[in-house]
Amino acid sequence: MKVYEKIFARLDELNMSQSELSRRTGISTSTINDWKKKKINPQADKLVAICRAFDMSLAELLGDDETENSSVDYSAEERYLIECYRRSDDQVRKHMLRYMELIDNVEPNEMKTPQRNVAVIQDVDGNNIVVINDIIFKGKRSITWSDVEKYLRRYVGEFYSIAETGDIVYIGTDLPDEYTGSNYTKHIKGTVAKAKANAAQAIPEIIEIATSKTVEENKKEKHSRNAKNGWYRYDTRFALPVYDESGEVERYNVFSARLLIRHAASGKMYLYDVLEIKKETSKPCQV
């Protein structure tokens, strides 16, 4: 049975109309009707929404019979994604589906590559500092962390190299939520909260300049898989502008911070949070 045939069989099974499927998925009724009329399968980016509407897994919808798959009119890239899903274990499949859900929930304008005004400079001692030239999260009383979370979703799936060690650090689906909702984040206020929120603009650079790697064992059962091989901490630094009454940049305040990186069962390293953010008491940075 082809994928589009399974969809209409499921509609019959649930006694669900095409209009209701359209309402639940956001896919137009004309598109749904075309699948049956033209005997074509839906595009791969529609599958997650369809599975959610039908309360079924992607594996159930796609099936495992290879003779069926030979007739599915997907591109080579779409077939590759499906094969990756099929040969993964249940835990990896959950992460893949979570990633697709995050993408599916991001507004089109959020998918655009963020315009970042960021640079790496060296202080008088030759140490790197990531200079963030814009303050985009400006809560007068408190930070709207949901906005920061949306911003961080743009990095999910990317990876960056730490220059000092050559370590590759991935950005997983858990970073946006942990970065904005961790116990550390909940307890910071004022300048430090504003610093962490705006440091989100420079995730690639604060990873790349990280130094002083330390290792610690995983001690919590809840992280027995996603940090099975323990944790790493690195030092990093960044600077944010301070404006005068006329709105002109008066100086830059420098902050030190520690990157918390989990070492997953897969052997990959993932950025988990940015902690211990402190304003340096030395002379402010002049750029």
TrEMBL record:
<keyword id="KW-0238">DNA-binding</keyword>
<dbReference type="InterPro" id="IPR010982">
    <property type="entry name" value="Lambda_DNA-bd_dom_sf"/>
</dbReference>
<dbReference type="InterPro" id="IPR001387">
    <property type="entry name" value="Cro/C1-type_HTH"/>
</dbReference>
<dbReference type="GO" id="GO:0005829">
    <property type="term" value="C:cytosol"/>
</dbReference>
<dbReference type="GO" id="GO:0003677">
    <property type="term" value="F:DNA binding"/>
</dbReference>
<dbReference type="GO" id="GO:0003700">
    <property type="term" value="F:DNA-binding transcription factor activity"/>
</dbReference>
<dbReference type="Pfam" id="PF13443">
    <property type="entry name" value="HTH_26"/>
</dbReference>
<feature type="domain" description="HTH cro/C1-type">
    <location>
        <begin position="13"/>
        <end position="61"/>
    </location>
</feature>
<dbReference type="InterPro" id="IPR050807">
    <property type="entry name" value="TransReg_Diox_bact_type"/>
</dbReference>
<protein>
    <recommendedName>
        <fullName>HTH cro/C1-type domain-containing protein</fullName>
    </recommendedName>
</protein>
